[in-house]
Amino acid sequence: KNQVEQSPQSLIILEGKNCTLQCNYTVSPFSNLRWYKQDTGRGPVSLTIMTFSENTKSNGRYTATLDADTKQSSLHITASQLSDSASYICVVYKGAQKLVFGQGTRLTINP
Amino acid sequence: GAVVSQHPSRVICKSGTSVKIECRSLDFQATTMFWYRQFPKQSLMLMATSNEGSKATYEQGVEKDKFLINHASLTLSTLTVTSAHPEDSSFYICSANEREGYTDTQYFGPGTRLTVL
Predict the structure, then answer these.
(1) How many beta-carbon pairs under 8 angstroms link A with B?
(2) pLDDT exceeds 80 at position A73
């Protein structure tokens, strides 16, 4: 069964702190994995894309990792800012144009 | 990155009326667009795949006569919620697919909040 599971479901941290979000997947075939940020009431925006052969990719304060053997990915956010408060969704692209969504992690940054 | 717009961003209507939502790819052509529905604190659920010039493909459990999809051009897809009822109230998000080399990427619109009274 094609599934993407994220943890934690929600997370609250103080501004300036770091955090790591987790994603485990059982999707086949695997095309690539992306992390999206979704602000409340807005559509998802892509943060990173990782293919099977990539282990780490950074986008500013966001760093994503992928372990294709264990089928795990993480998103690390460094020096969090209030604007980082959002839902972060792990999405696995399964072949052409087929997406499997995780339930998302709701991140709240408190001042 | 590519930009996808949706209109309107928010709509409130009376029960029994029909509502049309537009999805446009602004700087690229999209042969395929997708319509999703999202309930509070849940992830996106695919409703249908819209292909330019042909009939949409609906996911299991989605009523095609209730959610009419038209993909008349390579930059525009519309979703019409017919005879809307309060249970149709939701956040509707479209996406447009762009192929770059061998990689497909779905770019999402900002969403449309539908409230049916």
Answers:
(1) 45
(2) yes
